[in-house]
Amino acid sequence: MSVLTAPASTRVIDLVAESGLTGRGGGSFPVHRKLTAAVGRRPRLVVNACEGEPWSVKDRWIVENDPGPLLAGATALARAVGARRVLLAVHEGSPTHRAAERLDLDGHGIELLGAPGGYVASEASALVSFLDGGPAVPVTHRAPLAVGDRRHPAAVVQNAETVYRVGQLLDRGVDWFRRHGTPDEPGPRFFSLSGAVAGGPRVVEAGAGVGLAELVAAVGGYTEPVRAVLASGWSGSWLGWAEAGLVPWSDEGLRPLGAGVGNGIVHLLPASVCPLVAVGAQLDALARASAGQCGPCLFGLPAVADDWRRLTAGEPGVLDRLRRRLGLLPGRGGCHHPDGAARNAASALRVFADHLPTHAQGGGRSAGRPACPATRGV
């Protein structure tokens, strides 16, 4: 008898717990814990395929190329938690939206939720706010979303790949699932490779613990020399090219470097690109993407982005102030948006420390110092 016909809905949650499946959207939270918290609350189940990170394409790949396990997983999870509504969330007008419109969602009891575009609009609480008739911006909530409160009834928000893996798990079993990855981080997962790769972003399926060389080889190798790697996108961490290739790509393997697998983005920064300009463009975009609801986003992110521009221009005395500001951002926002920006910038200062002198005021060949050797800005 398949799991989907098992008499007890808790069997699905038990199977997810036994598999060790964690969220694939970036947080790596144990999936069964969120499901268990929602049982008996008649939650909404939101399958999040928005992908606010610009270089993430794995959820789009699922919807376009292999939606069967996604739909099966959503149906099973809805039964397991007693969901009153099931929604597939996509950015309005995106390629994923167009692909989702071609699916038989009605036949699976799934509604299509077209959310506004934007970096923070796909954050879990922002989707719940939009679903409940409010703006698609992160909202503060004392209780977990899966539990709900008087303003926002219970909602289970799961990344599309997470739900896709549930569908595979129900079809192939725990033993198959745990053959992939590591004992502490089991199961297959998708990585989105971009930057110095042909035709990127490209999707690669592997398990946690895979080596960077194997991931890059899977997309045909890099197209030009690489300076550094950004793990988990704009809200992630920079790694030097050499160190990134020496550790297993798992949360455990990357943790000593201040990084994690997160949402699976692996961006290879070409050596021909100025890293300070590249990071500055990301910080500018993150500042603009802010919902502007709290001090760290409203004031902190623009100040950090401005300091970074000044640092790139070689203005003296900026670095110490920038470091102080970065230390004030984490843990103080209404969501984790400022935390991600601070992590990006702080890791960039570490990885690109040897590049900073090429931007120092008065630097350049005329002052006896090497000028920035990059031939491209972004």
Kindly describe this structure.
Residues 358-378 are annotated as: Disordered. The chain is of the alpha/beta class and 378 residues long. The chain folds into three domains: 3-177, NADH-ubiquinone oxidoreductase 51kDa subunit (Rossmann fold, 3-Layer(aba) Sandwich), CATH 3.40.50; 189-270, Roll (Ubiquitin-like (UB roll)), CATH 3.10.20; 275-367, de novo design (two linked rop proteins) (Up-down Bundle), CATH 1.20.1440. Helices cover 39% and strands 14% of the residues. It has helices at 10-19, 31-38, 58-65, 67-81, 95-100, 124-131, 160-172, 174-178, 212-218, 241-244, 251-254, 275-289, 295-312, 318-328, 337-351; strands at residues 44-48, 85-91, 111-115, 155-159, 188-195, 202-207, 226-231, 237-240, 265-270. The relative contact order is 0.11.
Short key terms for the protein model shown above:
de novo design (two linked rop proteins); disordered N terminus; Rossmann fold; 378 residues; Nuo51_FMN-bd; four-stranded parallel beta sheet; 9 strands; 3 domains; alpha/beta; Ubiquitin-like (UB roll)
